């Protein structure tokens, strides 16, 4: 061995040294928990492909929100599952639609103790399951959809949401939402843009969670997994249109994209560890093939290390509890 002897293992000798030199820490305050609420449910219901995640009733959602606050999570992202759907997704705009009702419930319960966010997309509310309204030939009509998003944003803001998350990948959606919010007097409501969203098979369990009616796929509006440079273009557009934060989705299979986006912008970068990422680990762990807790924290640490400052994850509450014991 050459002198001086360089031995990196000195800094791995025991837990105290490893803790001292650890480059990345996941903080509960940076975790956001997605939650589903279903209209008309009396009791929460399990989602088979997302073990541990529930379709909440209005009541159980309020309790879960309090538990999330107690665990110290940074935010809650709400998704609504309506009892009925139509072609235009009007339940997303209706002030009495399930998502807007849930926003009011959660805000009333937790106030400013955490950041309340809402998915701003039509797919939960349309009978065909697409993220927008359709033209007579069945394609998603970009600009007609933008008009619906504008109304939906104002309805969510009126319900009291802190942050809206436009996730439909329509061109121009961030600008339209920003202008609509400002015009309605909601200039303090922030936009977390799903700027980079791939047409991914990792969303499978989510579509069970919202009982999606989608047939076919979203490849005419979500991105091709083969493309990285296109993501930088999407992010630049969203920042120019007024996005306060940008998100990359999914997370773990796209860490190169997270890293490139982090280097390209100065707004906070979020990543969404999506349903399929969670379900893969849960399924393997249920078989005894992997150590569930270690894998949970390893995946979150990796997403953080790649450059995501905020992570949406179905493990947020549990991970926050584990992390608090650890540090
Ligand atoms: C769209 C939306 C989806 C997800 C979040 N927002 C579904 C989709 O784009 O098909 C997926 C999240 C996940 O898989 O956990 N409203």
Describe this structure in words.
The chain is α/β, with parallel strands linked by helices and 327 residues long. It is 39% helix and 15% strand. The protein is built from eleven helices and ten strands. The protein has helices at residues 15-21, 58-71, 98-110, 142-159, 173-183, 204-209, 229-240, 255-264, 275-286, 292-306, 316-326, and strands spanning 31-38, 45-46, 54-56, 75-81, 115-120, 163-166, 190-197, 245-249, 269-272, 310-312. Strands 1-4-5-6-7-8-9-10 form an eight-stranded parallel beta barrel, surrounded by eight helices. Helix 2 (58-71) packs across helix 3 (98-110), helix 4 crosses helix 5 (173-183) and helix 7 packs across helix 8. The two termini are 37 Å apart. Residues 119, 121, 123, 167, 203, 206, 218, 274-275 line the site of ligand PBG.
Mean of residue pLDDT values: 97
Query: How many discrete structural domains?
Result: 1
Count of helical regions = 11
Terminal Cα span:
37 Å
In the predicted model, the low-confidence regions spanning at least 5 consecutive residues are none
């Amino acid at each position: 061995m050459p002198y001086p002897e360089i031995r990196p293992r000195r800094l791995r000798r025991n837990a105290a040294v490893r803790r001292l030199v650890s480059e990345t820490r996941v903080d509960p305050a940076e975790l956001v928990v997605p939650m589903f609420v279903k209209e008309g449910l009396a009791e929460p219901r399990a989602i088979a492909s997302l073990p541990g995640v529930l379709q909440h009733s209005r009541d159980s959602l309020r309790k879960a929100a309090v538990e999330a606050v107690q665990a110290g999570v940074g935010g809650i992202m709400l998704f609504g599952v309506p009892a009925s759907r139509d072609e235009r997704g009007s339940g997303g705009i209706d002030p009495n639609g399930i998502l807007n009702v849930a926003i009011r419930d959660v805000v009333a319960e937790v106030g400013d103790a955490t950041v309340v966010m809402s998915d701003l997309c039509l797919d939960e509310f349309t009978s065909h399951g697409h993220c927008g309204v359709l033209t007579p030939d069945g394609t998603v009509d970009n600009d007609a959809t933008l008009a619906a998003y504008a109304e939906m944003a104002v309805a969510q803001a009126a319900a009291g949401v802190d942050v809206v998350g436009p996730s439909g990948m329509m061109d121009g959606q961030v600008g339209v939402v920003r202008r609509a919010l400002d015009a309605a007097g909601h200039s303090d409501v922030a936009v977390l843009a799903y700027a980079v969203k791939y047409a991914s098979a990792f969303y499978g369990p989510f579509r069970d969670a919202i009982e999606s009616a989608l047939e076919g796929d979203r490849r005419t509006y979500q991105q091709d997994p083969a493309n990285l440079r296109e993501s930088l273009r999407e992010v630049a557009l969203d920042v120019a249109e007024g996005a306060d934060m940008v998100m990359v989705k999914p997370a773990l299979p796209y860490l190169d994209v997270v890293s490139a986006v982090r280097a390209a912008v100065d707004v906070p970068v979020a990543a969404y560890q999506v349903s399929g990422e969670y379900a893969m680990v849960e399924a393997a762990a249920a078989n005894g093939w992997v150590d569930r807790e270690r894998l949970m924290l390893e995946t979150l640490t990796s997403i953080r290390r790649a450059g995501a400052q905020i992570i949406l994850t179905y493990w947020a509450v549990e991970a926050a509890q584990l992390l608090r014991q650890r540090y």
